[in-house]
Amino acid sequence: MKELVEYLAKSLVSQPDAVVVTEEQRGETRVYRVSVHPSDTGKVIGRHGRIAKAIRSVVSAAAHRENQQVVVDIEA
Amino acid sequence: MKTVVATGRTVEDAVRSALVRLGVPKERVQVRVLQEPVKPRFGFFGGRDARVEVSVIPTVEEICQEFVEGVLRRMGIRAEVHVRTGRSEDGGLSLYVDCAEEDAALVIGRRGSTLDALQYLVNVIANQGREGYIRISLDCGDYRRRRRESLEKKAERAAERAVRTKRPVWLEAMPASDRKIIHTYLQGRTDVTTTSEGSDPHRKVVIIPVVSSEPARSVRTRRHSR
After folding, report:
1. Interface predicted TM-score (ipTM)
2. How many domains does chain B have?
3. For residue B43, is it within any domain?
4. How many domains, chain A?
5. Residue B93: in which H helix or E strand, if any?
6. Which CATH number do you get for residue A36?
7. Dist CA A7 CA A4 (whole Å)
8. Does B27 lie in the same domain as B88?
9. Fewer beta carbons within 10 Å, N or C terminal of chain B?
10. Are B79 and B97 in contact (CB under 8 A)?
11. Does B121 contact A54 at a Cβ distance shorter than 8 Å?
12. Contact B118 A12 (CB under 8 A)
């Protein structure tokens, strides 16, 4: 799952090497924190958060298959 | 990205031999000179060949296919992404996800939410650093066609009801692409007009009966395309 989050973020940014994803369990929920190069923030969030929303939607679908609850946090 | 390293007496020679090996025209590659040639002294001493690295620039089709397959693989879904030709009326690219039936439900998601998210992301990626805009549509398990047919049926029923009751009918909130299908479908009818009300994600299509003999009532009949 972490690999999926990383792949999505890296595909969207212009500096993939700066993408860092950390994983943390908070109760029932698994939290993925995505940090990108400051100049790439817009590329993972998008206008009105549309890209972030799409990332969350894809990751949630994958989590659903494994009966997990996930949250994707994008650090700006 | 497919890459080869080739050598030759000159840079041009090296590139030419790389192109033969890759089997693509010059326009589709990116060349990096690793080493300039050095002319031998006295005709044969200490000369060095040119060395070049030649990479095939992926096409937008390849970029999209690789991205979608990459995402699905990491979701634990085995799928192949095919390019459909002659499917798109706007010159865009139409992609189809071919996977097992039980996986298709996951790829599509509730009311197509996962498919729409994937489609949105592939549009962003296809248009990165690109001049002009190319529209990518993504389908799986024939969802788009089935969805269109069910929306058209729904539109038909709602239009009948609007005409029968002489009152506007509000459909449930739906995304812009779905609303467009309804507007387009009902455009052919003269007994109703359509508009949309509210703001996303709660925007709804309203179907308004056209009352021809009676004087116009206070129902607004603005016509929107979306």
Report:
1. 0.95
2. 3
3. yes
4. 1
5. strand B93-99
6. 3.30.300.20
7. 5
8. no
9. N
10. yes
11. yes
12. no
